[in-house]
Amino acid sequence: IPATGHVAHANRRAGTKKAPPPQTQNAGSGRGRRRVKVIAYIALGSNLDNPKMQIQDAFAELDEIDNTRLLQTSSLYASAPWGYANQPDFVNAVALVETELPARRLLEELLKIETWHGRQRVFANSPRTLDLDIALYGDEIVDEESLKIPHPRMHERAFVLAPLAEIAPDLVIPGQGTIAKLLERCSDPSLKRIED
Q1: Catalytic residue among 63, 133, 153, 185
Q2: Helical H runs in 15-86?
Q3: pLDDT digit string, tens, across residues 36-70
Q4: Is 89 a catalytic residue?
């Protein structure tokens, strides 16, 4: 995915550059543990300051996270706002990444990217320049105060399920079922795929 000027600017500010793959050690060698690569799905959303550009820039920035590789991205989808109606429609997407970062560290990196995009948390479900959530992280289930995986209510939200079904239709959400079946039960008339 070609980087844009926004990406280059963000990287200069943060001083980040994609690190070379770390050298892994054989299990049981006594020199360290093998780094485990995990497949994770990141849900993206934006409804301020050119949302399509925000999402496209974020795709490229995900690939800049250390020890993380962007593998695939969904199409962009337009959807009506959720929870607070008096705001612009959203643009949503899902990205598939391979990462060696623990889930908590990956979340920290996503929060940094949100900050680069000027994300402000004014109130619950408020308009935002960029929202990045870990929808799934391998088959892990995490239930901490500030990190819950699978992401709560993703199984009820077509704007997450539709782009996810596009790139991983046979995926199973732990405790909920397959993406395809969940999407059948989760209709959203406002959801529209954005054509290129």
Answers
A1: 133
A2: 51-62
A3: 999 999 999 999 989 999 999 999 999 999 999 99
A4: no
